[in-house]
Structures are given as C-alpha cells and as structure tokens.
Design goal:
2 copies of one chain form a homodimer. Helices cover 36% and strands 25% of the residues of chain A. Chain A is an alpha/beta fold. The interface between A and B is large, with 62 and 62 residues. Chains A, B: It catalyses: L-homoserine + NAD(+) = L-aspartate 4-semialdehyde + NADH + H(+); L-homoserine + NADP(+) = L-aspartate 4-semialdehyde + NADPH + H(+).
C-alpha cells in the first residue's frame, strides 16, 4: 500500500481537440506537481488523434507518442489509465469498454456516451476493478459529480436543479438583458465560439438532457439514461415570455431538473427533465449569467447547496479531467479504487405528465364580467388550483391600451404536468380568451415568487 | 478488493452534542442506505459522552453502547473508524493521535485542532496508513475540502476567498440591510442561537482564521497553522463603514482569504488572512446573506468557482461528517485509503505587512485649495498609487452640509499592506483632515468596483 510499489502511472490520451490539447499541456507542464500529488510520476505514453497533421505542435513535441490507431493504443500493456476526450458514441464506446475490460481505468468527459450507455461502462469497470471517473462530463470545471458521489454519500439528495448548458444560458441572458431576439443572440453566441454551427445540441436541450441523466443517476442511485429525460429546448422562448417573466419578478433559465417524487402512498420515483422555466429573481440561479453554469442541490441533512463556475472551455474542462486523473492515479499507486457505481435504489422514472409542476399563464382576455369565472372554472375542472391571479389593463387597469381587453396573469399551485397542459389547451379555446402571451413552467425551488405573493 | 473481505465497518462516535446527535441518528436511520453505498454494514459500536444523563434519548436507544470513557472506546480492537465531534484541543488531540497510531481512521469536524496541530495528525495517519477526513471542519455542509483536495488536484489554485463564519455574516447582513447596530444584531444572533454567549470566536475572527489555515494548507500544499493567519475581527465595523460601502456599491463581509503571492523575482509565498473587507455588490459573495457560507475559488485552469450552502448547524454538519464516514468506510472495505497529506510545496507564509492589498479611505476634509494635493502627496510619499478619488459635499458638492467641509473617498491600487496602513496613519495627522469616516480594505476579487470606475 505504499507509493513505492508502482514506479509510475502511464497515461494514454484519446483525442486532441480543445480539451485534449489542454490536458496534454497541463500533464507535461505540471509534471512535477502531479508527481508530488500522486506519489509517483504520471507519464504520457501515447496520444491518439485522427489527423496528426492538424496538430503540428503535438507531433513536434511528442513525436512517436502520437498515433492514429486509438484501438492499438488502448490495447497496449503499458497503459494504466485511458483519458478520453474525443466525444460521441462510437468508436469511443468500443474503445472504453475494451480498456475497462482489460483493467485499465478510464477518465472521460463524454456526457453523451455516459447518458446513453453509462451502465455498460460501469459494469465493465466493476467487473475488472478498474476506475471510471467522469467529472468533466457535467458542468465543466465545477466540482459537482465528486461532491454528489462522495461528499453527500451520507445524505439523501432530494433535488438537483441547474444551468448546465452555457450556450443556451448565454442566449437567454442576452435576450433578458438587452432585449435581443433569439436569432440575434444565437448569432452572437456563434461568433464568440459558444455555439456550434448546428446549435441543436445546446438550444434543443440534448446536451442538458445528457447531463440530467448523469446527475439523476448519481443523486438517486438509480440508472437514468438520456431517453428517460423529458426534454424541451429553448428555441421557442419569445420576447413576450421574457417580458412576462420580468413582470413576475422572474428570469427564464433552461434548467436540468432531477428530483425525487412521491406518490400519495409514499411510493418514490425519480423525475429528470429539461425545459425553460421561470425562476424567481431572488433565487441564486437567476443571477447566473452568460456562459456560466451553476447547479443547486437540495439534500435532507445538508439543506441547500450551490455550485458555480465555468461549464465549458478547454482549460476548465481539462482541470476537471486532470482532477480525475490524479484521483485515478492515486488509486492506482495505492492499489485501491474509487467508489463504484451505486444503483441500488433502482427507482422508477416518472413520465412528465405525472410530475408535479407549476405553470405561469399570461393571457389576453375580454374585459367583461364572468371572464375570470370562466377561466377559473377551467382550471378547477382539471383539478388545478390557482395560486395567484393578476389582472392589468382593461377598464379597471392601465391608462394605455384597449379598454375592452385585459391581461390576465395566472400562477398555479403544483399539479400533475398533464393536468396543467390540458388546462392551458382548454383555456385557449374559450371565447373570452383572445390570445396567449406566455405559458411557462415556474420553478419556485422553495422560494417565494414575490411579485404575485406566491409561496414557492 | 471485493466487498466480501470485511463483513462490516465498526464506528465509534466521540461526543454527542448537536452534531453528534444528528450523526448517530442518521447512522441508525439510514443504515440500509449506508450499507448499500459502502458495500458493507456500517455499525455503531460505541458513543462516548461526558454526561450520559443529559442524553436520555441516547441511553434509552443505545444502552450499553454509551460510555463515559472515550479513551477506552478509542483503544478497543473492534473499532475501525473514530468519528470525533467533541471539539476543542484536549483531550481530543490525545484521543485522535491514539486512534490514528493504532491504524484507526478518523473523521473529525474539529477546525481548532486541525488548524493548531493538523500536521501531527496527518503524520500519525500517514505512519499507520489510516485515513484522516475533516470535510465538516470548514463551511459545514458545503462540499469544499474534497473538491480542493481531489477535484482540483490537477490544477493550480491561486486564491480562495470566502465567508466561512455564519454568525458574523448574519450580523453584517443585519447591519447592512436594516441599519441595525452591531450590538442589536449580535443580540438577535444570540437569541436565534447563531451566536454563543461569548461570541469572540465568531466576531473576532478566530473561527474563520482556523478555517483559513485549513483551506490554505489544502490549496497550496503547504502547512499553514492558525498562528500563521493574520486575523482582524468585525467588532469595529461601524454604521459609517456600512454607509461608506453602500456609497461605493459594495458590501462588507468578514472574509477568509488564502492566496499565492509572488515577489518581483517570482518567489512564491502564501498569504492567509481574515478581516472585514468591502466586496463589490456585483460579486457573487456580496449576495451571500444571513448565516449562509460561500467560498470563491480561483484556479489557473478551472477559472472562478463558487460553493454555497449552510456552514453550520447539526444536520448540515452531520451531512459532511457522514459523507466522510462513507468514504472512509469504502476505503476500509476496499483495503485502500484516501489521499494523504500533501504538503510538498512548503511555501513560506508572508506577513500581512508585505501582502498586496487595496484600501478604501473615506475622509472629512477642509474644502479648500491644496487639500487633494496634500493628501495625494502623502500617498505618493508611501509609494501608494491612487486608483480613484471622489469628492462630495463642500462648495462644489451636495446641497446640504457644511460648505467649508468636503468628503473625500479614495480607493487605492494594490500596495503592500504596511505601506497602506502607514499612509492612512500619516493622513490622519494632516491639518486638512478633520475626521475619518471609514477605512477598510477592498477585495475586488478581479471584478470592477463600478461606483468609482476602478478595475478590480
């Protein structure tokens, strides 16, 4: 069990894009510090890249260590740890399964693969006693998975809600602060390098859904895959939504939400979902702007926690990868291993329709007697309880505007999402409703929606 | 290396106050979940308390497990892990050294002991191969030490600045928001149970200084003890200071600051200090109110990170203790161990006088020609560069007030703290200076002090 047993830890890096370049750079520049922290030298023994000619720095610095044959590198006997920063499902899945099966530990930033096929990787790791670490897969540099997996291992996590996609948060922040349109904000994000040419993974919530799956799996000791996550993107968020949120003292954020949900009989299940939602401005998540990430965690004993930092970028992601690499290398030196997969709870995943949520509905209605009764009746018919109503404009209201038309803002209590969606659909058909300004879920997250005096 | 090798992990708990009670409660209530997470049952084999008759619940529930003889409990062969939540230096130091020397792992929340004699404990742990975990000693439930020690192990931490004492933050928040005096705010904190009968540890910064020592030790791989930490409490923060901070767009927080400091020749040293300082309102730490804690971390690759949550209280602290206990138990089951002490860097600790800081000075001055020149000359004589000056009142200024008197607000660039302190002392002696409203350090933390247009 002493550091003298192994003389060094030999590392293979797969992929050399933005993150991989930083990993290789830090690995060599900070070699002395890493050696001191690990208790043995950490030596780079190979880097696999598809097109070496695109990386002249790499080939000049490392020469023979650079290879195009990732499979051969992974298969080498003199590799102890495989660091994967290629991304995507194949050929990475095959490579990492091979590595784990042969007892090599894996450090990966690959959220898509973990969210699609994490259990297969975890089983391969457990079978051979290898380590599988993936801190960089969610929220970049923010230490989040280790706290969930280790620091809170003696607690019961009840809820994780976070901004885990920097691109969509940058766009929403720009729309909220500058009155910029979605299209203009997206263009700015693309020019700044935050958004890809095809922004779908970010703005349609696929990236956040992968992260939600990973977070839910760790938080609830239950296997949750990307396909279990209800996903709505933020392309449809309009200027009217932004304005409606402001009116309510809220900000719109694309949230990844994982929570324990309880039936009336106490049966427990898990909800994992991604959608744009209103968050009260007083909530710590509301002030997370630009490309930053932040994750709010609630646990029974620990209470409310928040983790904040850079969710993407070469250096921040490399920091997380290297933190994992040091942990895996220490385990290797000590002939031990890190915490294995913990999926003992195996809770069912609840469909979105049965998950309690809370809606905000902002309507244009006729300003005449009985309108509120008609609308309130529709909510009641669907079993949805109204938390607050505010009427503005019309004969009783603001000076400007059509006196025959009023604006009605409703915030509901929590109800099954399908009942809320059904209510909204029914209300739009009412004669007295002339238009819908905004329909969005409200994530009170335990705090007050002060503008309407609603307890969160 | 399989979970079958050891049949259970046997735990002794020393102390049964607020935290200990929660630890024992969670340990028994969540026994099944802990077993699943550890891979073996975690069994309470003894609880040492000085006065069992004060804990009827404990003796009724656990009967023979309760003992008054902590030393005998620690010495038992059938104890694998000792959890210490007594606090204070002796007899705890002797007990924990005995436990570690005999190979028993230790989980402790004892910041005072760690800050005074952490190296002795670390050496005892390393000598026998036992684990020493102490997440609960800093910032209660917030997973902070594990991220510093493990997640950022592949990065270089440059700065840690945080609100790590909830009592003083509660008092400062009350003073800032309600115009409450220090004395009234302290009384409210005492009534709410946040402050002790003798509040010195909190308001004089001793508690925060212990935490700063622990944070600096982990962040910079250098042994830093409480006596190395420069400490100023917050008893002297006045209503005038609060008002001056508001005028500058800042909030006053009692900060624990640990940072790498570089000489002109590149020589690196460490500064660890605790004092009340102005923080720009736009900074995430500024909005941390009440008894909450938050710690801002800057690292070379990861960039800026923040951790937020409850820093004290029975349940939150117990959450951190149990997280450590699960980690230690997992290590025990796997016959491995966690990261050992990392003090390889052994950087010198710099005295406060030589640490670069930035001052804010708010003066009442005569409103006549040459005043600014006299004051600016004093700064220059001490080698301190002025970042911004604002003059209000007087003949050129506000409508109300004495036209022969002006208010001068100065924010400096960074300079050695002794030069700044010397300048302030000299300025107070100038004829043209009629009074000092406020002198406080400004921790820009890399952000803009917007009110005066000073880059942070």
């Amino acid at each position: 069990m002493t550091s003298g047993e192994r003389t060094e830890v030999r590392v293979a890096v797969l992929g050399c894009g933005t993150v991989g370049t930083e990993v290789v750079r830090l690995l060599t520049e900070q070699a002395d510090e890493l050696t001191a922290r690990v208790g043995a030298p950490v030596r780079l023994v190979g880097v696999a890249v598809r097109r070496p000619h695109r990386h002249p720095w790499l080939t000049e610095t490392f020469g023979d260590l650079v290879t195009t044959d990732a499979a051969a590198l992974v298969a080498r006997d003199d590799v102890d740890v495989v660091v994967e920063v290629i991304g995507g499902i194949e050929p990475v899945r095959t490579l990492l399964l091979e590595a784990l099966k042969s007892g090599k530990s894996v450090v990966t930033a690959n959220k898509a693969l973990l969210a699609e096929d994490g259990p297969a990787l975890a089983e391969a790791a457990d079978a051979s006693g290898a380590d599988l670490y993936y801190e960089a897969s969610v929220a970049g540099a923010i230490p989040l998975l280790r706290p969930l997996r280790e620091s809170l291992a003696g607690d019961r996590i009840t809820r994780v809600a976070g901004i885990v996609n920097g691109t969509s948060n940058f766009i929403l922040s720009a729309m909220a602060s500058g009155g910029t349109s979605y299209a203009d904000a997206l263009e700015e994000a693309t020019q700044l390098g935050y958004a890809e040419a095809d922004p779908s993974a970010d703005v349609d919530g696929y990236d956040a859904a992968s992260k939600a799956a990973i977070l839910a799996t760790l938080s609830f000791h239950t296997r949750v895959t990307a396909s279990d996550v209800h996903r709505e993107g933020m392309r449809e968020v309009s200027a009217a939504d932004i304005a409606a949120a402001k009116l309510l003292g809220c900000t719109i954020k694309l949230l990844a939400i994982c929570e324990r949900v309880h039936d009336a009989d106490g049966t427990e299940s898990v909800s994992a979902r991604v959608y744009p939602a209103m968050v009260p401005s007083s909530h710590p998540l509301a002030s997370v702007d630009g490309a930053f990430n932040a994750v709010f965690v609630e646990a029974e004993a620990a209470g409310q926690l928040m983790f904040y930092g850079q969710g993407a970028g070469g250096a921040p992601t490399a920091s997380a990868v290297l933190g994992d690499l040091v942990a895996v290398a220490r385990n290797h030196v000590a002939a031990g291993r890190g915490p294995r997969e913990s999926a003992y709870a195996s809770l069912p995943v609840r469909a979105i329709g049965a998950v309690p949520t809370r809606y905000h509905v902002d309507l244009e209605v006729a300003d005449r007697e009985g309108v509120l009764a008609a609308i309130a009746g529709e909510f009641a018919r669907n079993g949805v309880s109204i938390a607050a109503v505010r009427q503005t404009g019309g004969s009783a209201g603001a000076a400007d505007g059509d006196p025959t038309q009023a604006r009605l803002t409703v915030v509901t209590h929590t109800a099954p999402d399908s009942a809320l969606a059904g209510t909204v659909a029914a209300i739009q058909e009412l004669d007295v409703v002339n238009g819908v300004n905004s329909v969005l879920r409200v994530e009170g997250l335990g705090r007050a929606v002060s503008a309407l005096g609603v307890a969160g």
